[in-house]
């Protein structure tokens, strides 16, 4: 079901914009949902919309859904997509910002490996305007750094816990992208020769903490006879996947399999986050993403406890925060990527 609104908790506008040349669109492409916003030059959200991510169909279906979601957000803001000054897209996988291509997207629409010209396809649909492509978590962390939980710090690690586990870095006030894929904390090895990850490797953090991998593990355990409420709750909620709300409900009801899987995930997150702190000594850690935003209020202390045995300097721990922009951090960050002069 689509969701469109011109109101939200981050400074939504209340009228048709008067200067359409200074309005930007942002789209957050996730494994389960596509979130789109239209923002002004201050990053204030004027309109938003949400669609489910296509479960199959590859990049062509994804581009059509990106445009449809953006169109609803633009309509809520009182502007046509072709009138936007630019559009940014935050996407998981291997992003080449210069060529506007996206590859290795195991968690989206059945996945694809070869580079796909997502930016140019979307540019054709929005009337030829500027379309910028960036890593989904990197742009979300940039938004939290500029407007949200990271705004009081010069160095921040963002950990986005959702369908996969993504990361982003701001070092000394500068987003650090390395050669394009810096911050991929989900593919740090936390257990050599460990569980198989969606990327095909073994022992990655995402293999233990990513929602998709946890669901695969839950299904395997249930097939072996392990009792769980997870799939009953999923069917009751009319979902096809174990969404963050399903996990939250199962945890509330103290389901043993859900509890074990989440506690295992938190333990592995502690290993990975502490390792990043030991290397880079950032001031703050921001936890976001679908599962992160839903579960971190309950488990932020547990994540800190899981980090503690692995920290080299225990007397100077990083500040721990939950993403303040919530579900909109990725879409707002994508819009900022397109050019608002913050």
Structure commentary:
The protein is of the alpha/beta class. It folds into two domains: 148 residues, 2-Layer Sandwich (Nucleotidyltransferase, domain 5), CATH 3.30.420; 172 residues, ATPase, nucleotide binding domain (Nucleotidyltransferase, domain 5, 2-Layer Sandwich), CATH 3.30.420.40. 37% of the residues lie in helices and 19% in strands. The chain has a six-stranded mixed β-sheet with strand order 1-4-3-2-5-8. Helix 3 packs across helix 10 and helix 6 crosses helix 7. The longest helix is centred in the C-terminal third of the chain and has 25 residues. The two termini are 33 Å apart.
Strand content: 15-25%
Radius of gyration: 19 Å
Low-pLDDT runs? 1-9, 11-20
Amino-to-carboxy terminus distance: 33 Å
**CATH class group of the largest domain:** Alpha Beta
Could you give the order of the helices and strands?
A: EEEEHEEEHEHEEEHHHHHEHEH
Helix/strand/pairing class, anyone? alpha/beta
Here the CATH topology of the largest domain equals Nucleotidyltransferase, domain 5
Main sheet properties: 6 strands, mixed
InterPro entries: ATPase_NBD, ROK
Organism: Corallococcus aberystwythensis
Protein name: ROK family protein
Region (Disordered): 1-22
